[in-house]
Amino acid sequence: MAVTTDRHDRVLVIRIERPEKRNAIDEATARGIDDALNRFQDDPQLWAAILTGTPELFCAGTDIVAGPGEPTPRGGPYGVIRRDRTKPLVAAVEGPALGGGFEIAMACDLVVASTTASFGLPETRRGLVANSGALLRAMRCLPLNVARELLITGTRLDGRRAHEIGFVNRLTEPGQAVEGALGLAGEVCESSPTAVSATLQALEEQWAPAEEHGWAATGRAEHRIAAGPDKQEGLDAFAAKRAPRWSDPRT
Questions:
Q1: Of 74, 119, 229, 245, which sees the most CB atoms within 10 A?
Q2: Residue 90 near residue 181, CB atoms below 8 Å
Q3: How far is CA 91 from CA 13, 127, 184, 207, 224, in A?
Q4: DSSP result, 3-29
Q5: Which residues are annotated as catalytic?
Q6: H/E element holding 121?
Q7: Which DSSP letter does residue 2 get?
Q8: Neighbouring C-beta atoms of residue 156, cutoff 10 Å
Q9: Coil vs helix vs strand at 100
Q10: Rounded distance, CA 236 to CA 94, Å?
Q11: DSSP secondary structure, 182-245, as one string
């Protein structure tokens, strides 16, 4: 199975396990994430959840060969990106979280990462734009200039730096991200679940108008990319492991 779960008292741990594909999201994986998060949301005895990958890698984003499948009814892309949640979700990151993997982490409420973690948005290097929330959430999760740099250069942010600038809540030693996330989730579970839910909903309500504008802007950016040649050139170059030959934007 591409997605597995295990329960720790009131906390559900959800694991993406496709190491042979760098934990990339295909249709089955997206459905697995969606099913696990539906279970979490619908079980009143579960108060927090942790989303993680394998010990060496969080998630490399979309499976470029198979595709990510259709957005799920309750979760949207990957089963999580546009989910209307009322309970806290913690990302536990070991190793790279790239492209859609980084966007999954941004869709969570809290992030615990080990010193092996790195975060990147390589889409522009492939002639693409980030389309699973980074164009709206990066500015919310990161200082503006850091968000802009990651989005337009494709460079990575390591775990220590991500912690220093406030994206990562807790930094752990290698291999300890899930344990750290369980500790943080345990602290959340000491609070009233009703009060936690009400707090999260109040925070999200204030961001809702910006999210709507952000998704509309993301759609326009995608349309612009789809209308030009760079998307295909970027994917061809990536597959051939060569430098892309970008088009002249003046033509």
A1: 119
A2: yes
A3: 10, 28, 11, 20, 32
A4: EEEEEETTEEEEEE--GGGTT-B-HHH
A5: 103, 123
A6: none
A7: -
A8: 18
A9: helix
A10: 29
A11: HHHHHHHTTS-HHHHHHHHHHHHHHHHHHHHHHHHHHHHHHHHHHTSSHHHHHHHHHHHTS---
Q: What are residue 219's phi and psi, to 5 degrees?
A: -60, -40
Q: What angle, rounded to 10 degrees, do the helices at 230-240 and 193-226 form?
A: 100
Length of the chain: 251
pLDDT tens, N- to C-terminus, the chain (251 residues): 899 999 999 999 999 999 999 999 999 999 999 999 999 999 999 999 999 999 999 999 999 889 999 999 999 999 999 999 999 999 999 999 999 999 999 999 999 999 999 999 999 999 999 999 999 999 999 999 999 999 999 999 999 999 999 999 999 999 999 999 999 999 999 999 999 999 999 999 999 999 999 999 999 999 999 989 999 999 899 889 999 999 987 65
